[in-house]
Design brief:
Beta-Lactamase; five-stranded antiparallel β-sheet; Immunoglobulin-like; alpha+beta; nine-stranded mixed β-sheet; coiled coil
Length: about 550
């Protein structure tokens, strides 16, 4: 059977909807529907189909309308009737009443259901339930568009809330007598062309407490006043006086320029250079030199609890003698190569299976040798991560106490208690504690200076740098200082740096058991030297 078209017309012959499934013009379909009207009116048969010279019309009357199936004359009439019934059922599912206006309103849904029944003129083996299922399937693109629209509505609502909160904050400032931040914002972002910076500033301080806002405004007023004072470079004092605080907010470009003119002797080193610990020169190499280097990172609470810690280490090999380049390094017996807490990683040229089974570091190709150009080659790396409240990976434990000074208003007494780990029987050298406040009103309280601390430097980038030459192994000591700040939280986070380049043993116990020749069958032992070092990477008190 071939279905040429399906149409809905009125009893008077007016076409309402028509869907063609074969290559046939609109004029031809209109002509066929006109012929149908004449055939039906002159027919006295009780059958619901009529024929002319070329096509057959299978139809079904409903109310004041006909639904007509146009097929060729050779089509199976039984199948045609079944198809027409399916068309009528699908159409009824979209119409509550047989009204011409309702048919037009649901035209696309009705034609869509017709397309599901007929494909290229031939009926699909479908039921009404399957047709409804296919038509109700969701569109991925439509869902994405709906999500985008919902997100836009949500963002608009959030923006309205933010603006309402901003208006409320400004009204609160006005009632408290706090000056408007508009002028401060203009100065703060004077050199920036990005309007989002000002929005970010306002959004941040809108969430702050009233005390924190007022403290910041007072600091900015001092900064503005300092920028407006005429500066005489030749008469500017070198030291002393009250300074601005890093903890109370960063200075604007204008106030920073004025401060630099007023303080020509101020240091301007960056944070990296202020806390950077210089490495010693390479030690002499007598043939084979193995260096065990470890870096420590930790975040410690003000009470001294270790919140997070991490250790990264590497074993580096230096060879300057070709006769010793065919070597294998054996780890100490107490180090298990399969210990997953170390997270070992070998160099790609190292035999990984040999390392995991016997703890020996050797080249995969035994015929080859290590480079003997006296350059360091990292053959093994490891990483350990400590759990919360576990101080096993913290060689330096720090507790801090901050309290307002009993004798000097506007000053705070800050005391740090430093303790080396019992597990690490080595000294810590060149210890530096960086407090993020710029003030020249700072002094060490010698009554509580067990470790011989001194004020190393003060600058507006790093704040106050406290230096301790060495903390001996197993030592616990306190360092107390008095300095100016706006509020207690301005002292944190405190950055700490230390090193030990003359250690006898590594922090984790990593080392070298022996070095053997990879060419000789008996594995003759080779002479070697070992150095160990420990250095802080990101060590802070928060």
């Amino acid at each position: 059977m071939v279905v040429i078209a399906v149409s809905i017309i009125t009893r008077q012959g007016k076409p309402l909807l028509s869907r063609q499934f074969r290559d046939i013009s609109k004029d031809r379909v209109t002509e066929l529907l006109s012929n149908f009207q004449g055939l039906v009116s002159s027919s006295s048969s009780q059958h619901t189909f009529v024929e002319d010279e070329h096509v057959r019309y299978v139809y079904k009357p409903f109310d004041d309308y006909y639904i007509i199936l146009i097929t060729n004359r050779q089509s199976n009439i039984i199948q045609d009737l079944d198809t027409l019934k399916l068309f009528a059922q699908s159409m009824n599912s979209y119409l509550s009443s047989f009204d011409e206006q309702e048919i037009f309103e649901n035209a696309f849904e009705i034609l869509g259901s017709f397309d599901e029944v007929i494909t290229m003129g031939y009926k699909e083996n479908l039921s009404l339930t399957q047709i409804n299922t296919y038509l109700s399937m969701e569109s991925h693109e439509e869902k994405i568009q709906e999500i985008i629209e919902r997100n836009k509505e949500f963002e608009a609502a959030e923006e309205r809330k933010r603006r309402a909160k901003e208006i409320s904050r400004r009204e609160h400032e006005r009632k408290m007598g706090i000056p408007s931040t508009n002028g401060l914002d203009a100065m703060r972002f004077h050199s920036s062309n990005d309007p989002n910076l000002s929005n970010a500033y306002s959004s941040y301080y809108s969430q702050a407490s009233a005390a924190a806002q007022q403290s910041y405004y007072q600091t900015q007023q001092k900064s503005t006043a300092a920028a407006d004072i005429p500066v005489n470079v030749s008469d500017s004092p070198v030291g002393g006086g009250r300074g601005l605080k890093l903890g109370g907010g960063r200075k604007s470009g204008l106030s920073a320029a004025a401060s630099q003119l007023q303080q020509p002797a101020r240091q301007s080193t960056s944070t990296v250079s202020a806390l950077q610990i210089e490495e010693p020169e390479k030690p002499a190499n007598n043939g084979i030199l193995i260096s065990v280097k470890e870096l420590i990172s930790a975040q410690i609470s003000r009470e001294g609890n270790v919140q997070s810690s991490e250790l990264k280490g590497s074993l580096e090999l230096r060879v300057n003698n070709q006769e010793l380049a065919h070597a294998r390094i054996s780890l100490p017996s107490h180090i298990d190569a399969k210990d997953k807490s170390f997270q070992f990683k070998t160099h790609p040229n190292i035999d990984k299976n040999l390392f995991l089974t016997s703890g020996v570091i050797g080249l995969r190709d035994q015929k080859k040798a290590f480079p003997f150009n006296d350059q360091s080659l990292a053959v093994l790396r490891w990483r350990k991560v400590g759990v919360t409240d576990d101080a096993a990976l913290a060689p330096l434990r720090i507790s801090s106490w901050v309290s307002p000074s009993a004798t000097d208003p506007g000053l705070f007494d800050v005391t740090f208690e430093l303790e080396t780990a019992e597990e690490y029987a080595e000294d810590l050298d060149d210890v530096r504690v960086a407090i993020p406040i710029y003030t020249e009103n700072v002094r060490i309280n010698e009554d509580f200076n067990d470790l011989g601390a001194t004020v190393g430097s003060v600058d507006d980038e790093n704040g106050v740098i406290i230096k301790i030459a060495t903390i001996k192994a197993g030592t616990t000591g306190a360092v107390s200082l008095t300095l100016e700040a706006e509020y207690e939280d301005a002292f944190f986070p405190v950055s700490v740096a230390f090193s030990n380049y003359r250690a006898h043993n590594s922090f984790t116990g990593m080392g070298v058991g022996q070095v053997m020749s990879s060419q000789e069958e008996d594995g003759a032992q080779l002479p070697f030297d070992v150095t160990a070092s420990l250095k802080s990477e990101e060590y802070s008190v928060v």
